[in-house]
Amino acid sequence: MKKTRLSMCLLTAATVILGACTSNEVSEIDSKAESQQFKIINVTNHDGKPFSTGISNSSPTGKYVDNPGGGVMMQAFYWDVPAGGTWWNTVSSKVTAWGNAGIGSIWLPPASKAQNGAFSMGYDPTDYFDFGDYNQNGTTETRFGSKTELVNLITAAHTENIKVYADIVINHNSGGQSEANPFTGTNTWTNFNGIASGKFKRTYANFYKNSYGNNDEGSFGGFPDLCHADPYVQDWLWKRADGVGKYYKNTMKFDGWRFDYVKGFGSWVVRDWNANVGGFSVGELWDSNVNILNDWANNANSSVFDFACYYKMNDAFDGNNLALLNDDMMWKRNPYKAVTFVTNHDTDEIWSKMLAYSYILTHEGYPTIFYRDYEEWLDKNKLNNLIWIHNNKATGTTSILYSDNDEYVARRNGYNGNPGLVVYINNSDVWQERWIQTNWANTQIKDFTGNSTWYPTTQADKWVKIQCPPKGYSIWSINQ
């Protein structure tokens, strides 16, 4: 009797175990089948080359050079950085660490003297050739420091082979003297004949409305609106050898330009500047419409900030609908002219910033990191890890493997022998697992963020199951 009971117990236990194993196998099959239901979206179609700034990445100093994934830009300021002329030195003290972390360029605020003098962030320019060496507008130094300190900063950045981009405000001016204006029949603050540098003097004749017309594409804040149709203005801004553009590039050694408020003037202005001066350029076209961004970038022959991506990320991450990341963005339309960002000195709406950085630093385009996010607000080690992943693994075209409300998985398809990666973003409150198709058969992979300790091996059909932490991300590539 005891033997019979024992046999029955063993049989029952075996049945339970077998049933559990069979159930797990079925569950795995069902899980894989669910992922196979999702139709892979091949987002971009090109030869796989990374974003290029058009500037040689060779390094005479043996310091940072662009890696397989391309470069990363640092916005090296925020609104109302400390006054007192210390900012250029502050940034100078950072560039070695930034270069070691893989930052390839820095974007500086408008560097010339502006109407608000020692307190100005530079967006109200008076004298384009006063970098803190003339006593005007109540100060000699700018808010950021002296010309010598600026030159030292640029030199220090170049020593690390970091490119330096100047913020250029050429839509409007401020700080001129009042003069009678025959075109308006009133007095206007358009007399800039007294600027201390003596270069690029201006009067009412060089601002709208004037003999060239009543207005251009846009004006800003009631400031005098520069007339780019005026040959004198063109000459001083980008044509003559000692004009603004060529002086900044050839004498001050800036490597490129961030054009402020490009909605205020025709795209031909940036196109002509780039043709005459050269260097990398990106326009601030504050618009979420991809068609408008793409048309401007093509017409201006310039990169443009990807505001379409910015607003989609805000809706996707903060609105808990990651499927919105399937929608159109500038980097999808033209990855070689899209500069992506999570926040900047003007707008800071995205709450789930680390998820957003995991997105832009694994996807195409030219990603920008905001100074305060990096130096003050977020985990610098995690950002450095993402920068490393971007530079070393984020290669090739992009395919979206899966998306729903709280999960998003995309694949970079690799380029020139570099295997690419798979990024998994999870906006839910629990760990998630998902079967996805990689580009690698019978290959061990790992999560290069360290968020997952799995070391799975892909199947012969290149499928594999990966996992992602709650409110987090994991980034997978070949374990080598």
Automatic annotation (TrEMBL):
<keyword id="KW-0732">Signal</keyword>
<dbReference type="InterPro" id="IPR015237">
    <property type="entry name" value="Alpha-amylase_C_pro"/>
</dbReference>
<dbReference type="Pfam" id="PF00128">
    <property type="entry name" value="Alpha-amylase"/>
</dbReference>
<dbReference type="InterPro" id="IPR017853">
    <property type="entry name" value="GH"/>
</dbReference>
<keyword id="KW-0378">Hydrolase</keyword>
<dbReference type="InterPro" id="IPR006046">
    <property type="entry name" value="Alpha_amylase"/>
</dbReference>
<protein>
    <submittedName>
        <fullName>Alpha-amylase</fullName>
        <ecNumber>3.2.1.1</ecNumber>
    </submittedName>
</protein>
<dbReference type="Pfam" id="PF09154">
    <property type="entry name" value="Alpha-amy_C_pro"/>
</dbReference>
<feature type="signal peptide">
    <location>
        <begin position="1"/>
        <end position="19"/>
    </location>
</feature>
<comment type="similarity">
    <text>Belongs to the glycosyl hydrolase 13 family.</text>
</comment>
<dbReference type="InterPro" id="IPR013776">
    <property type="entry name" value="A-amylase_thermo"/>
</dbReference>
<keyword id="KW-0119">Carbohydrate metabolism</keyword>
<keyword id="KW-0479">Metal-binding</keyword>
<dbReference type="GO" id="GO:0004556">
    <property type="term" value="F:alpha-amylase activity"/>
</dbReference>
<dbReference type="InterPro" id="IPR006047">
    <property type="entry name" value="GH13_cat_dom"/>
</dbReference>
<feature type="domain" description="Glycosyl hydrolase family 13 catalytic">
    <location>
        <begin position="71"/>
        <end position="387"/>
    </location>
</feature>
<dbReference type="InterPro" id="IPR013780">
    <property type="entry name" value="Glyco_hydro_b"/>
</dbReference>
<keyword id="KW-0326">Glycosidase</keyword>
